[in-house]
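Below is a typical protein record.
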Amino acid sequence: MGFELGDVVGFVFSPTDTDLLKYFLKPKINGEEVSCNFIVEKQIYGANCNPWDVLDSSTPWIASGKSKKIAYVFTRLNDKAPLVRSSVVGNKSLSGSGSGVQRRKQYVKLGGCGSWNGLTGRMPIKDNNKNVLGIRRVLNFQINDVSGALRNNFDFTKLGHYKLDEFVLAGCHDYALCRITLDTSKTPMVVNLQNDDVSNIICSMQSLNVLGKRKSFQAQDCCSGPTKLLCT
């Protein structure tokens, strides 16, 4: 029998990486009942899977500090392989003279009008006997289609920043257990925007009456990686 949030005074659901793989994801994959009201099943990845739509009011968020909250979600992994793209990670000296560009492959999963972009490679999670239970990746959410985020008179600038820890059991790639953190003290990441693009977004939001009483809308770091949108 599971129990609801708040049933036990002082109880905080805070499983370790090993706990998530061993006591929750493995039984789920084996077809056993996982009786825990802190973990729900939702489809995180896919063309119609904006995180703010998927993680709705039915999601059992757990507060973590003043501005963060955490959700634990079982999700089915798509049959398609994730998009893997090449990204620039910095300059690299070549033979002591000149400079070049160092690139790496980035793990990317589609998520509605944006994508979950890998911040790390595959990190093995081991048990006490040093056996590999599974792997963990860290991804963050980036809005790629601003027009899609603006649909339905929706102010996406109020969302905050989504980060996802994806846990996959060794030898099984059908299901993942995700620990999703929403930080409302940060602004959402938006794919590279030029100043003209920002102006167009402002006009679109004003025409939709989404800005309300907010006085300004501006972008920082426009030309150097994902842009943070700030409203004050």
